[in-house]
């Protein structure tokens, strides 16, 4: 096992010291856990070199920033951070940005599975002390096995195979959406991006159709507004005409009322005149009768 880790012959004292060098706790549990972490680091270095890395070293610094594992290939520098517990997503993202600013072309976090894995270029390792160094990543890997877009893999991946693909350039990390991402093969990323390009093209076409429909709707709205303005002007004119007609009608009603009053006055005058004429007719008849009587009397007397 030590030969596979690249440690060669290491005595027990050195191993224990390496396992407890960075921890103040001296209990057997912490020492064993740190030994598992150190074993994983050296195992990763040996696998990286075996898979084609130019060099891989444990506990190095890059531009003053300390990293657990630093390896290089074809002039590019990569960093691996190994954590045995949960990660603070914000601090891990800041540290990742710091490493990239320091010159690292890629960063890998090995940590316990959790929600933070999908927000970082990380792999979730549930067992840091597997038999025969058969490390397995249970989260952090995505694929297109069940859909055209990458989704979290339903099967765990051996860390050995992941490192082989990462060194060869067959596996890379990318964003699934605006916040989360994962590790996938270049082929899966090509399929993912092709599907996204198809979706974007379809959405652009839909957006173009929607813009056309919106332009037509706006034109219809403008035409309707013009018609509304015209109808409002007509309504104003009609209201003005109605006011004029109402005023004329009121004037006619006033005149008609005046005519009714004059008519009533004339009718009353006519009735009075008719009564007067009737009286005068009676007086005239009576006068004629008196005259006739006088004449008759005169003839009789003669």
Number of helices: 6
The largest β sheet comes out as:
7 strands, mixed
- The percent range for strand residues is 15-25%
CATH fold title of the domain at 2-140: Trna Endonuclease, Chain: A, domain 1
Number of strands: 11
Shape: rod-shaped
Mean pLDDT: 88
CATH class placement of the domain at 2-140: Alpha Beta
Order of helices and strands: HHHEEEHEEEEEEHEEH
- Helical content class: 55-70%
**Spatial strand order of the main sheet:** 1-2-3-4-5-6-9
Task: Please provide a written account of the structure.
The structure is a single chain. The chain is an alpha+beta fold. The chain has a domain at 2-140: Trna Endonuclease, Chain: A, domain 1. The chain is 58% helix and 18% strand. The chain is built from six helices and eleven strands. Helix 2 packs across helix 3 (28-50). The termini are far apart. The chain crosses the membrane at residues 280-301. Residues 221-255 form a coiled coil.
